[in-house]
């Protein structure tokens, strides 16, 4: 080393350097989850595609990865069922040797005024979005390797407070709280924990039930004057999962084109 070369006294060896990097993506068969599967595979991750029920879509996501020379498997699991999620993580370890990144993209959306919402539907929403996030985060905290990353999903609506989003926003507010606490609980393990909170994004789930006028109005809200795309959000996730994003920790990232 020459006298001119600086010495980084804080540098530590990257524990990921000499091993296959493995990512679990729940909700990986469609929408943002599907785009994330493709993006992480492009970065060299072996990907476990978690899905709730649509085997055909999950198999298509796996086939896209393997056709490009990557490694992927599909595993069906209810995110709110701790035994099924434990089995999903065990499958990832058995198939690929461990888990480095967990992206919890699975979730449900339910829109209704608070005064009119069926409480049974509220319970079902919160089972997936709150309990499901907790169950996945719990396994991630137990299983993820040093140098890894956990990425949960919230929504920009938590801050925007759109009418009709009360139940959904409440569930995602819980996700944000859980994410920030987990980041602090994993102190000393070299694992980052962040939430991605997209604005309006052109997924099938988002577009379902909306007329053209509503979609146009939502697309006009950001200063960039368009809806986000699943690929936009997958790029943010990929950054957080990469060594370049490893100094970002305990944050809520709101990729929404500038909606205030």
Account of the protein in words:
The chain has helices at residues 31-42, 55-67, 82-96, 119-143, 157-160, 166-185, 204-207, 212-219, 230-241, and strands at 22-26, 46-51, 72-76, 101-104, 149-153, 192-196, 252-253. Helix 1 packs across helix 9 (230-241), helix 3 runs parallel beside helix 4 and helix 4 runs parallel beside helix 6 (166-185). It has a single domain, classed as Rossmann fold. It is α/β, with parallel strands linked by helices and 260 residues long. A seven-stranded parallel sheet has the order 3-2-1-4-5-6-7, with helices on both faces.
The portion of residues assigned to helices is 40-55%
Shape assignment: globular
The CATH architecture term is: 3-Layer(aba) Sandwich
CATH superfamily: NAD(P)-binding Rossmann-like Domain
What gap, in angstroms, lies between the N and C termini? 49 Å
Poorly predicted segments:
1-5
Which CATH top level class fits?
Alpha Beta
DSSP summary: helix tally: 9
- How large, in whole angstroms, is the Cα Rg? 19 Å
The overall strand count is 7
Structural class: alpha/beta
Helix-strand topology string: EHEHEHEHEHHEHHHE
Strand order of the biggest β-sheet: 3-2-1-4-5-6-7
Note the topology.
Elements: E1 22-26, H1 31-42, E2 46-51, H2 55-67, E3 72-76, H3 82-96, E4 101-104, H4 119-143, E5 149-153, H5 157-160, H6 166-185, E6 192-196, H7 204-207, H8 212-219, H9 230-241, E7 252-253
Parallel strand pairs: 1-2, 1-4, 2-3, 4-5, 5-6, 6-7
Helix pairs in contact: 1-9, 3-4, 4-6
